[in-house]
Amino acid sequence: MTSSSPLYAQVALDVPLFTALSYRVPEHLRDHIAPGQLVQVPFRNRSKTGLIVALSTELDDPTLAPKIRDLYDLVDPEPLLSPHDVRFLSFVADYYLSPIGEVVRLAIPSAVRVEGIKHYRRLPEDQRTPAPNAPQTPLSLELAGALASLSDTEPTPVAALRESHAELTYHRLAELELRGLVEVTYQESASLKPKTERYFKLLPRPRGTLTGRLGANQLQILKLLDGMPSLSLPEIREHIASPYSSLKALEERGLIESWEEEVYRDPFADAPVEPAPSFELTLPQQRAVDAVARARQAGRFEGFVLHGVTGSGKTETYVRIIRDTLAAGRRALVLLPEIALTPQFVGVFRSHFGERIAVLHSGLTAAQKFDQWRQIRRDEVDIVIGARSALFAPINDLGVIVVDEEHDPSFKQEEGTRYNARDMALVRGKLARAQVILGSATPILESFYNARQGRLTYLAMPERVAARALPPVDIVDMRRGPHNPTAGPSSLLSTRLLGALDDTLHDQKQAILFLNRRGFSPCVVCEACGHVFHCPHCDVSLTYHRRMEALRCHHCDFSLRMPESCPECLHTGIDRKGVGTEQLEAHLRELYPRARVARLDRDTGAGPRLQQLLTSFRRREIDILVGTQMVTKGHDFPDVTLVGVVLADMSLNFPDFRAAERTFQLLTQVAGRAGRADSPGKVIIQTYTPEHYSLLTAREHDFESFAERELAQRQAMGYPPFGHLIALKFEGANEGATVQATRNYATAARRLLRTERAFGDAVSMLGPAMAPIARIKNRSRWQLLLKAADRALLRRFTIRTLELAGHFDAGQPHHRNVRIIIDVDPLNML
């Protein structure tokens, strides 16, 4: 490109705009600018920080050139994201029809992207290391003055430095970084700083020069430091409870020296690490490892569906694949569906790979997340483990992505940019020429079908390791009346399940009872007038929680004290209908007063209590664990020999074409918790629909038969994987405005279907319709569902519909008070 031709930067700002904005690059910045950098640009009447996503010498619309404004400044001399990462973010924004700034927010922590967070600290002369391309000329007077104004102990915000030295831009101040004169840190607030630790070491001294007496603590400190390169303050405190005055005295006498070093906050520093077991791969495991190795050696992207039954050794297979990837000089990303699984995986991977592991998920504090992100960006780790948001970690030389339990719906983001981490892992892998492994005992039908069609490579692991048998599954028909009337609430637990519980406790083994409904009772009704206690803000009934003696909404968290009488007729006879995990736990405590019973759901498993519960169960401090689907996700409990499913029909009753698939997945996954060690397991499923094919195939551990039946139904209806869906969802406080917005978009869609044959013959629209849950948090909810066999055609139709309805107009003037959500490939139909 010649210096005479204009250079334009497309900049993503954290504003609700669907495209990046174009800015002209000033001449003095042309040689220093690149995609992935943070820049300051004018936006309306103020300055904002954004990310460069592309550079070009031409505009899409050349007539706009006179209106293009110059960008102000570079915030960072080096890009924060690689070209691969920037292309990936652009793809995500484009595919999910999401504002690009919203997607950038997923990739860069707030401590980095927020304006005014870059800090400088003046370095002592002996710690300065200039960059190879640092200027050789003397420092200008302006920069020398700015450097002199900096502290050598406390970091100064660069924004504050610019205020006191108005003649200096960010770009000019970056020369201090190139010359190695300053230390750069990113701090969101005073409470979020890089963590430092003080270190101590002995100073050399001639023999016989020690004068004066030393205290016992001082002598012990000298002994600890003798022969060691250095020790941190926490390491010294392990031997001396309060060494501060002794350390100060030794430093004043010139016997030791100290300094500060930056250290990272480790969210799993206290987690135990077991020695890495040595294991021989089974033949299916070895075949999977070899298949991935062939793709790696050829340097090509390839997606794999690793279909391994529960207990078949998928984790060991991941370990071997990642070990080979690291040996080839590349890095690994492991995505997990549930934060609860993270410590278990971190422990396994640390035992094999040491400390060069970073962890990213929403359960970390802001400071922990900040530290983990910086480690990854600095190439100080080889493996990143985390939930769906870890997909956006700035990993260089990415060689393999593992998506464990790929069937899990939690990989789909349900707020903001509604991306699916499983699908986008394949996209990121393709951009990086990496291998992507989608692992599950119950692959989603889309993955299974794509493997059949040759788009993905199918790897089967049909048997458990060590020739352990899959547990037999017994289906109990609950329609035949009370099974054990003396045991408590009727039809809650069958005689067969109670007998199996007796045997399990007698054998000193453990049991898991699965009930996917928390609380004590999901519905409270007046016996006299039939009044049902509903949430005043959502279109759902309130759930009774006996421990809090309150009624609660599980959507908006509204709660009220359990009333003594009906608010409608004042009758005192209030009946609690249905059963939840809290009631089941209480019932089991009555039945088995000597057994140790615990419950794992969102009420009991919040924060650190989650790991405490899982650790207690793994240590056999709990005999019976009652839980929601939190107990189904990949846990390995060697002493669990019984799994009971109390109500297997619940997930079948959702108004969702995926209901049967999710039921099969849940039952298969929870059944897989039984019999994972030497003792055989048993599974008992209680149901009111024992003839349903999802239960019958789960009983036989027969994924292929289930898939055949379900795929045939999907094909007949044109649902995924044979068709594609985009949902347009409308939410507003005013129901009339919400309905009107929905109708306007439906009218635009109908006009396209009527006037353009290419759409009318291939696209169908379902709705407009009220959402199954019509109101949440006092917001009315309506939706349109667009369906087509051709993904590209459906996308074009959706964009045209949105354009006709004025969706891309700034501020959406016709529907300011209605939130309009575009959900590409929706999973949640409620």
UniProtKB/TrEMBL annotation:
SMART domains, sorted: DEXDc (SM00487), HELICc (SM00490)
Cofactor: binding comment: Binds 2 zinc ions per subunit.
Give binding positions for Zn(2+) 2.
535, 538, 553, 556
Among Gene3D superfamilies, the record links this protein to: P-loop containing nucleotide triphosphate hydrolases (3.40.50.300), PriA, 3(prime) DNA-binding domain (3.40.1440.60)
Please state the Enzyme Commission number of this protein: 5.6.2.4
- Which cofactors are reported in the record for this sequence? Zn(2+)
Q: Which SUPFAM superfamilies match?
A: P-loop containing nucleoside triphosphate hydrolases
Q: Which family, according to UniProt?
A: Belongs to the helicase family. PriA subfamily.
* Descriptive protein name: Replication restart protein PriA
